[in-house]
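Section 5.1 Outputs to date
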Amino acid sequence: MVDGGGGEPESSDSMRTFGAVVQALREYKGLSREGFGNLVGLSKHTVASIELGRRMPDPDFAERAEPVLGNTGALRKAAPCLARQPGLAAWFRQWARLEKQAITLYTYECRMIPGLLQTKAYARQLFVDELPPLTDEQIEAQWAARAERQQLLHERPNTAYGFIIEEHLFRRCTGGEEATRELIDHVLEIAQLRNVEIQIMPLVQESHAGLHGPIRLLEAPNNNWFAYNEGQMSGQLITDRKVISGLQSRYARMRSQALSIQDSTSLLQQMRGDL
């Protein structure tokens, strides 16, 4: 199954927990979603979205709902804690949750340096270039979320991380020469971790199995594999075994086509010296 995530609304653990409490109280009172909605001025569809954590309740929702659901005070106390999950695109969050438990994570990237390997200066340039433009607060939130994800490389030493990155991504000098020097130094440092393998796909490559675009593959603790594809303002979580098998074959072929780990390190050092 290929799950399109482009239309997934913003959500968070607090929204899902709040929604579950609303649902439990409503069912305890013996009310249907439609019946409850009529009493608080909402459609049954809106009630469902709130209960499933897909919709942020209106500011006065708790005050309207409390008398209907027994005046327990639970909703009044929980409402101030509601918050959307900042920094991560809505369509990416399901994959980000899987990342936290992965035992294997493979990434091929031809558009930009993978987020797990970016520096703040490099990432900031990407955020500044976003259209529609982001506010300073949004930029900081996105970097904070990305920096938190990067801790996985250090906090999960038993997870195997593999990266295949196109050479031209470094030669583009996104953010300028100083940002690129810092980026290469950072990637070389990460490459020293025992659980990380970084390979560079050279500019000149007669045979290339990755021309269809980026690939992300992930093995969960139960040994199930997932894949993820991302495009313009959307993403897809892939669980179909046949599709994943094809992507695994492409990634395996690219590992043989890319430079070896040692040669990749040498090329990065050479590019660093050329700046």
